[in-house]
């Protein structure tokens, strides 16, 4: 048994049909963790620095969301956190972080479909947002910006799926409803340790829809860095292990294009982050009828 902590944390269904946490093993020359086929089994609490990456190698049959729902506490998100995105949205650069929440049920895995309920199918406005996601690894309260990254368990990539009609009009002035439907926060394929990503503000991030590049930017364009965000959010509020922070999206969203380009049933959205890998999710319009 090894005493070292993880490098690339994955949660996966193994050959025996059971779900495990593991440390992904990348094939030679591969950097995208979504391509991993094997992982070393992790024993113990992943939020405990004494968890163990064992030498037991297991096959990966399917990669799941890198955190189980029961291990997630809150899903906090930033809006308008890239300078160029604020510009394309015709909104002023915010002086303070614009924070909203998604429910835990919005979390989905790196290859899960994006379910679109019938209640939101009647209006155009379904949009994608590639985002760097930071996961809190230990309790943080009143932390300083220069110490903030010490509280990060690791980084992954996510899609802050949004419906602009519901976000801006039907949400009653609050954004959460138009961004918080089930499965509207796919993330993965792994949580990358800060020992591998020492500077989260220098990563290329991108979105492709049906193979066409829609967003292609750098986390250097963030208005509030990960460190600034954690320091700000922790003032008077305790961040706990399992808190998830979606940190905003760069320019290139469908809402900002001329003409606007919305997602449709069957579209495939692929989002990538340098040093992490990619998630690939297919839009799936539901046939479920609203219960009124």
Automatic annotation (TrEMBL):
Query: What Gene Ontology molecular-function terms does this entry list?
Result: metal ion binding; oxaloacetate tautomerase activity
Give the UniProt record's GO annotations in the biological process aspect: oxaloacetate metabolic process
Residues covered by the Fumarylacetoacetase-like C-terminal domain: 75-283
Q: What Pfam family is a match, any one?
A: FAA_hydrolase
- SUPFAM superfamilies noted in UniProt: FAH
Keywords, alphabetical: Metal-binding
- On the tree of life, the source organism's domain of life is Eukaryota
Q: Which family, according to the similarity comment?
A: Belongs to the FAH family.
- Protein name per its UniProtKB record: Fumarylacetoacetase-like C-terminal domain-containing protein
Q: What organism is recorded for this protein?
A: Morchella conica CCBAS932
